[in-house]
Design brief:
It is rod-shaped, with a radius of gyration of 55 Å. It contains seven helices and nine strands. By secondary structure, it is α+β, with helices and mostly antiparallel strands. Helices cover 37% and strands 18% of the residues. Strands 2-9-8-5 form a four-stranded mixed sheet, with no helix packed on it. Strands 3-7-6 form a three-stranded antiparallel sheet, with no helix packed on it. A hairpin with a 4-residue loop joins strand 6 and strand 7. Helix 2 crosses helix 4 and helix 4 packs antiparallel against helix 7.
């Protein structure tokens, strides 16, 4: 390299002239810039690949997490209660009976049970669950808590055996087989029912239970207070049946 100042030839890529110590600015600066550029480019690539490597490792090593974008509030669950009652019930006309029930869960047994009948002309039910058979037929009693219908009971109502025997007493002589199993009170209703069929009026002071019993019968119509007159209206079968029943269940004195 020839020195521009003293015109001396210098060997190689000298930084300074060995004769006059002149600095070769242009050559030196160009080489320095080239070196600096190469260094910067190399550093950029090294940093880029280092970040890529670390980023990949972080993804592999990072444990699974769940990210929730919004805060969710718990949904309240309304308590559901159920009431269980018998599915079927057989009654005779005029017969009352309570329907038993259980409430689930047991800790809420104080929940109010509402009762209803789909046909109150056949059977009625009061707020306590007392079912009363009104006439022959079928009805459905429903027990519920709030708006939740929990259970139903199919009620089948047959004719009152006493009513049936009262009618038969006018048609034929009754036998022991007909009245076997009847209680004293049922026999009493049967005997007096023969008179009630003709409209005999029972006195409250001596036979208040009879008057209350027959006043609920749809066929009963009070007409006569004179027992002698009503007795004269009985046919032969009825007269004999009254005496037959009196032997088994004597009238109260």
């Amino acid at each position: 390299m020839k020195c521009p100042k003293c015109k001396t030839e210098n060997k190689g890529n000298a930084y300074f002239c060995h004769n006059c110590s002149h600095q070769f600015k242009t050559k030196i600066n160009g080489w320095a810039v080239s070196f600096a550029v190469q260094f910067v480019v190399t550093a950029i690539f090294a940093i880029y690949f280092y970040d890529k490597l670390n980023s990949h490792s972080a993804i592999v090593m990072q444990p699974e997490t769940t990210v929730t974008s919004e805060k969710t509030e718990p949904i309240p669950v309304k308590n559901i209660y159920t009431v269980t009652i018998p599915t079927t019930l057989s009654l005779e006309v005029g017969q009352p009976e309570y329907l038993t029930y259980t409430i689930t869960p047991q800790k809420d047994i104080n929940q109010k049970v509402t009762w209803s009948s789909n046909n109150s002309k056949i059977a009625t039910v009061d707020p306590s669950g007392m079912v009363t058979a009104i006439t022959e037929g079928n009805a459905v009693i429903t027990a519920s808590i709030g708006d939740i219908v929990s259970n139903t009971c199919n009620v089948s109502i047959s004719p009152d055996i006493i009513d049936v025997l009262i009618i038969q007493a006018s048609q034929r002589l009754l036998t022991e087989a007909d009245i076997r199993g009847l209680s004293y009170q049922q026999l009493r209703f049967l005997r007096n029912g023969i008179f009630a069929r003709y409209g005999y009026i029972f006195q409250w002071d001596t036979s208040d239970d009879l008057r209350a019993y027959f006043s609920k019968k749809p066929w009963y119509e009070s007409k006569y207070e004179n027992i002698s007159y009503v007795s004269s209206l009985l046919n032969t079968n009825e007269t004999k049946n009254v005496k037959f029943i009196e032997k088994l269940a004597p009238p109260k004195k």
